[in-house]
């Protein structure tokens, strides 16, 4: 008795007969099932029949795929694949052109099934098709069916493409090269040639020899989108398969023919939308073209190369050097160069080439900087001089930013990655712009400087700024700008405040899509995590911070230190020497009881900002805070060293006063902690043993030669 799971309820059709509803026993041999079906319809010779899906892909049912049959499937009783193959083999050789045409048409349809293909190829049916093509005595309709059937048979990989004769290859190539050829024949011929190219290097050389690049470009200029797509596919196959030297020659030829500009004008811009298959090949062309930058990206700067050293000094001279510098002594000139390289934003100002040793971006970063300085000298000078003249720690380092920006652009444009077989996210701007990498860099380095100022960033915020710039670039490119000017306008409109708004909107949308239990968990976790942040703020106040006193003449005067007592009851402060980084609490002579603090003021509401109204810059306003104590007649005034310190102190003082923390730093940390905690809580930890104590820290290595020393000494 068969088990219930081995029984499948299906319907079987046959033209001119009522369908049979049967319970298919998957344990019973398929031949026995077919015999029962034939007996029901009184059909002799069950070995001449087979079952086939009636809907969708009409594939033959075999012992190897029968388990894919589901309840409710509709099958059809049809000729067995061996019998069908024999009949078509004979029909193709008929003296009647009509019979040949019908047989080849049916062959093109049924050859998609691998079971039939094996039967037909075992009779050398594919060689019969090859002979029809080589003789080339048939009509265009018959030739189209022949080529289609041949392509379907070869797609199964039963027969190697290597076995094809040179006569056959030349004949297929002639269909592509000939101008008045039937469109359907050209489509299938282009498909066949592409498969040949991708199958072996020998066939690649033969196809490259027979099919001219001129002709492929001509096919891209026709109005038939299928021909355009097939020609583009063959062109990309040739480029991908070619050796590096051949590929460079092919690119040179395509650039000479203005292929990218033509694609932009006649395929991208005129049609408005590009089909998925064509979009993939446009992506491949973009990827292969940009990958010619990979050698520069993978090559570090050679400090002994005079040419590369000259380019580095050319960057410095374009921004700083005057004629009188040439009269300086060697030592004085060397010292001046080091200072100017530091102003230019190099970390290793005595040997700036060391900044370009890291790969990627390697020499490509030097190329982009030099291109910007040479192509847009005014913008380059403005960037460098504007930041090198600043003394408020808000200078944007040109060289360091350029190196990181080049790396970001390499990652966004996927330079160095082989083309994916599934991606189709090409950038229309690539086809409208020569030297896309360099021109994007020139726009984005100026964007970076603009964003740096909007964020009022310091060197500590470098990574944060680069994250924002990456987001600005990726969001803008995702909108598919079709020209560099359009990209420039869009990316500059997407300023830092807009990025914050978009992040907030997306965060809210993400929260709305969370399941109610997750939202409930989030609310339950908030008090615990807020308490964690409060304790961190108080601990930070207990460690203390060094503050600067600024005189009315805006000249640096003295340093003073302020810290909270361990019992959180006193604020201790006092003047300190510059070389004393963390003075003991006993050395701070002044103190204010926390209980006497009445209020916390920030920005323009602070007494020391009101007293110097009109003399304080925006930075000082953003970093100023004061505490009032006793009867609000006295105040202790602060100007934080950085925005981070401002957030830490104002949060900590609000905690001491029993108020809610309100800084942007607190909100960001809370989001990070919530996200991490929720992910940890939702982890599937069943059968996973969690140790009670932390794992033992391994012993340090015997040496640290694998580490890179980032510390640099100015000379």
TrEMBL record:
Xref: InterPro entries: ARM-type_fold (IPR016024), ELMO_ARM (IPR024574), ELMO_dom (IPR006816), ELMO_domain-containing (IPR050868), PH-like_dom_sf (IPR011993), PH_domain (IPR001849)
PROSITE patterns for this protein: ELMO
Superkingdom of the organism of origin: Eukaryota
Transmembrane segments: none
GO biological process: actin filament organization; cell motility
Domain ELMO, chain residue ranges per copy: 307-477
Summary of the function given for this chain in its UniProt record: Involved in cytoskeletal rearrangements required for phagocytosis of apoptotic cells and cell motility. Acts in association with DOCK1 and CRK. Was initially proposed to be required in complex with DOCK1 to activate Rac Rho small GTPases. May enhance the guanine nucleotide exchange factor (GEF) activity of DOCK1.
Protein name, per record: ELMO domain-containing protein
């Amino acid at each position: 008795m068969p088990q219930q799971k081995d029984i499948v309820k299906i319907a079987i059709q046959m033209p001119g007969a009522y369908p049979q509803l049967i319970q298919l026993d998957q344990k019973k041999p398929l031949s026995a099932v077919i015999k029962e079906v034939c007996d029901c319809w009184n059909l002799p010779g069950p070995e001449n029949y087979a079952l086939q899906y009636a809907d969708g892909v009409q594939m033959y049912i075999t012992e190897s795929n029968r388990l894919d049959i589901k309840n409710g499937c509709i099958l059809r009783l049809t000729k067995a694949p061996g019998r069908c193959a024999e009949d078509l083999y004979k029909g193709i050789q008929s003296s009647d052109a009509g019979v040949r045409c019908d047989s080849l048409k049916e062959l093109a349809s049924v050859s998609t099934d691998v079971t039939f293909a094996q039967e037909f190829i075992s009779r050398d049916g594919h060689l019969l098709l090859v002979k029809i093509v080589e003789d080339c005595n048939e009509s265009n309709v018959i030739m189209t069916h022949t080529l289609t059937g041949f392509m379907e048979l070869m797609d199964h990989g039963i027969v190697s493409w290597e076995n094809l004769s040179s006569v056959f290859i030349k004949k297929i190539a002639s269909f592509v090269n000939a101008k008045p050829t039937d469109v359907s024949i050209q489509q299938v011929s282009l498909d066949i040639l592409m498969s040949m190219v991708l199958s072996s290097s020998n066939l690649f050389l033969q196809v490259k020899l027979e099919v001219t690049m001129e002709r492929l470009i001509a096919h891209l200029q026709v109005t038939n989108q299928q021909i355009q797509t097939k020609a583009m596919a063959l062109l990309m196959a040739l480029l991908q398969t070619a050796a590096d030297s051949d590929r460079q020659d092919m690119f040179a030829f395509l650039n000479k023919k203005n292929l990218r500009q033509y694609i932009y004008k006649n395929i991208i811009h005129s049609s408005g939308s590009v089909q998925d298959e064509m979009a993939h090949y446009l992506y491949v062309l973009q990827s292969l073209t940009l990958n010619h930058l990979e050698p520069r990206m993978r090559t570090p700067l050679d400090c002994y190369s005079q040419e590369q050293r000259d380019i580095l000094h050319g960057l410095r001279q374009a921004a700083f050097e005057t004629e009188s510098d040439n009269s300086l002594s060697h030592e004085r000139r060397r010292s001046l160069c080091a200072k100017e390289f530091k102003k230019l934003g190099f970390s290793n100002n005595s040997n700036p080439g060391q900044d370009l040793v890291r790969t990627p971006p390697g020499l490509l970063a030097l190329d982009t900087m030099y291109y910007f300085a040479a192509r847009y000298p005014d913008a380059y000078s403005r960037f460098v001089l504007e930041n090198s003249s600043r003394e408020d720690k808000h200078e944007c380092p040109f060289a360091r930013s350029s190196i990181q920006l080049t790396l970001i652009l390499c990652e966004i444009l996927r330079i160095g990655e082989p083309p994916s077989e599934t991606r189709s996210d090409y950038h229309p701007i690539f086809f409208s712009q020569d030297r896309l990498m360099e021109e994007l860099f020139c726009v984005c380095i100026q964007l970076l400087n603009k964003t740096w100022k909007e964020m009022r960033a310091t060197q500590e915020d470098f990574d944060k700024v680069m994250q924002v710039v990456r987001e600005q670039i990726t969001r803008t490119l995702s909108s598919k700008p079709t020209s560099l000017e359009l990209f420039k306008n869009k990316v500059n409109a997407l300023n830092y405040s807009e990025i914050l708004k978009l992040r907030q909107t997306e965060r809210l949308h993400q929260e709305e899509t969370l399941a109610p239990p997750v939202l409930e968990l989030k609310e339950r976790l908030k008090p615990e995590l807020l308490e964690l942040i409060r304790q961190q703020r108080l601990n930070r106040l207990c460690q203390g911070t060094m503050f600067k006193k600024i005189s009315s003449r805006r000249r640096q005067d003295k340093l003073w230190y302020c810290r909270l007592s361990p019992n959180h009851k006193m604020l201790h402060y006092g003047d300190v020497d510059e070389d004393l980084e963390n003075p003991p609490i006993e050395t701070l002579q002044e103190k204010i009881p926390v209980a006497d603090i009445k209020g916390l003021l920030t920005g323009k509401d602070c007494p020391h900002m009101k007293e110097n109204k009109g003399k304080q810059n925006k930075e000082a306003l953003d970093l100023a805070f004061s505490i009032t104590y006793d009867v609000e007649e006295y105040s202790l005034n602060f100007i934080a060293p950085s925005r981070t310190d401002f957030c830490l102190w104002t949060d900590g003082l609000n905690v001491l006063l029993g108020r809610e923390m309100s800084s942007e730093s607190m909100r960001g940390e809370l989001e990070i902690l919530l996200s991490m905690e929720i992910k940890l809580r939702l982890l599937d930890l069943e059968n996973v043993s969690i140790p009670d104590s932390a794992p033992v820290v391994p012993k340090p290595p015997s040496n640290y030669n694998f580490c890179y020393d980032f510390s640099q000494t100015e000379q």
